[in-house]
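User: Can you recover a sequence for this backbone? Please restate the input before giving your answer.

Assistant: Of course. Working from this structure:
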């Protein structure tokens, strides 16, 4: 049916949260331009790095696992085929060198129910809509180790940070009446700061 609509197959790297979020968001930003094709993706790994994010992108991206066979067959037959979704940001190393995220248009949207869950979360930690909020993403080795126990992830350790090195900055922000949230799922070390405006979430 390609004379009427071009069907393309794509792969979503779903095992790493950074790739999972950035790659799909970058694709959606580019897809906002007029197009005359239908893209169908498969996930590189199940379970995925974040189940909620998968639910979120399924609202905007067609995901159907069996197309992975067509994807690899097509790549085997022709590496430069028009039936494969090109990863336009590969050479940039997952950096937004085109500035597609600079505009204020949101990539994703939330349902009323999801908005309610988010607002209840803020209320739980006494955060109002008028508060100034800083979110910290401080990488350590805990999450990588939890994803696959059979892989030695130590070659990533040079990218880790110590939570203790962030304490002066956190205390400075707290003194400026910011709410500070340390993001993440699991971590190696808790932050010793005891302050009602600091949330050590993991």
């Amino acid at each position: 049916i390609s004379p009427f609509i071009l069907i393309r197959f794509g792969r979503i790297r779903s095992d790493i949260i950074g790739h999972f979020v950035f790659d799909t968001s970058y694709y959606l930003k580019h897809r906002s331009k007029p197009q005359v094709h239908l893209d169908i993706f498969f996930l590189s790994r199940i379970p995925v790095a974040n189940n909620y994010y998968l639910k979120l992108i399924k609202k905007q991206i067609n995901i159907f696992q069996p197309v992975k066979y067509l994807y690899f067959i097509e790549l085997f037959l022709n590496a430069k085929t028009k039936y494969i979704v090109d990863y336009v940001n590969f050479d940039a190393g997952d950096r937004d060198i085109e500035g597609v995220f600079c505009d204020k248009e949101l990539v994703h949207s939330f349902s009323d129910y999801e908005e309610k869950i988010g607002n209840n979360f803020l209320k739980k930690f006494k955060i109002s809509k008028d508060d100034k909020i800083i979110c910290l993403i401080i990488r350590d080795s805990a999450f990588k180790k939890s994803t696959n126990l059979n892989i030695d992830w130590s070659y990533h350790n040079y990218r880790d940070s110590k939570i203790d090195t962030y304490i002066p900055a956190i205390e400075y922000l707290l003194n400026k009446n910011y709410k500070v949230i340390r993001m993440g799922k699991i971590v190696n070390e808790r932050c010793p700061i005891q302050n009602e405006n600091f949330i050590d979430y993991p």
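That completes the design. Residues 17-31 form the longest helix (15 residues).
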